[in-house]
Each structure stands twice: as C-alpha cells, then as structure tokens.
Amino acid sequence: MDNMDRKILAELQMDGRLSLTDLAERVGLSLSPCHRRLRALEESGAISGYRAQLDAEALGLTFEALVFVTMRDGDRDTVAAFEAAVAGVPNVLRAQRLFGDPDYLLQVVARDIRNFQRLYDEQLSALPGVQRLSSTLVMKNVVENQPLPL
C-alpha cells in the first residue's frame, strides 16, 4: 500500500458514494489506474464493503447502553456459543472480547428504557455462559465513526 492507495481510502472513508470518476479526480489519477487500485484494495480486504451510515436517533433508537459481560466459564465451547448467540441479537451494535474482567463489552441500542430492560432481562441475561451483566447508560456520543488514521 502506497500513498496513492491511502488517498483513495481516505476519500472513500469520507464519502463511500463517490463515483469512480469523482474519486479519480480527487486523488489525481486517470480513471483506469484508479479503478485498478480500487479493485486491488477491495480484493486485498483493505476495503471490506460499502454501506449506508444510519442515524439511530432518527430511526427511534434513542437509548444506548454499554453492557459489561462476565462469563461463568472461559472454555472454548462456552465462548463460541456466547459469541454466536450475541451476534444474533440485532440490538447489539458491537461486541468486543476483552482481556481481564469483564470478559465482554457490548454496545446496545434500544427504543427506550423499557425496551432495553426487556432486552436485558430476556435476551442478554439468557446468552450462553453469562454469569453477570453490568450496564451503564450513554449520556452523549462525543466521537463516532471516526475515519481510520491512514
């Protein structure tokens, strides 16, 4: 990856809907070389996909919480079962396995506190291997969807 590839990635991070023509113009390449580089970045996995960035609040998902999960056991089967199950919970936007205690951090959205309480009691606490859940509410998102430093 060279500086030109980084320019292409930076432009796409800012606007993933750029046409190939606009992208080539912004990075100072002609259309064919820009297309070849873009295709190579996609094939290498540097670009993993394209998607729309949605506004959760505009869609009625106004409640956000961070949920800390402590597992009963850390064996391979329990961890695999938990990770497969948590991936199937639509309200979980992000799940990260951590070193130390707690074992996982979940970023969760819901319509309101009642919806979150139902999700917490009925789905999150029932995930395989969960010993304890602890949560904190998000007051305000200060930095979101920050572009990767290239």
Characterize the structure shown.
By secondary structure, this protein is an alpha+beta fold. It folds into 2 domains: 3-44, Arc Repressor Mutant, subunit A (Orthogonal Bundle); 63-137, Alpha-Beta Plaits (2-Layer Sandwich), CATH 3.30.70.920. Helices cover 39% and strands 20% of the residues. The protein contains 5 helices and 4 strands, in the order αααβαββαβ. The chain has a 4-stranded antiparallel beta sheet with strand order 2-3-1-4. The N and C termini lie close together (11 Å). The mean pLDDT is 96.
Uncertain stretches = none
Gyration radius from CA atoms, angstroms: 20 Å
Spatial shape: elongated
Q: What's the CATH architecture name of the largest domain?
A: 2-Layer Sandwich
Q: Structural class, from secondary structure content?
A: alpha+beta
Tally of alpha and pi helices = 5
Oligomer: single chain
CATH class assignment of the largest domain: Alpha Beta
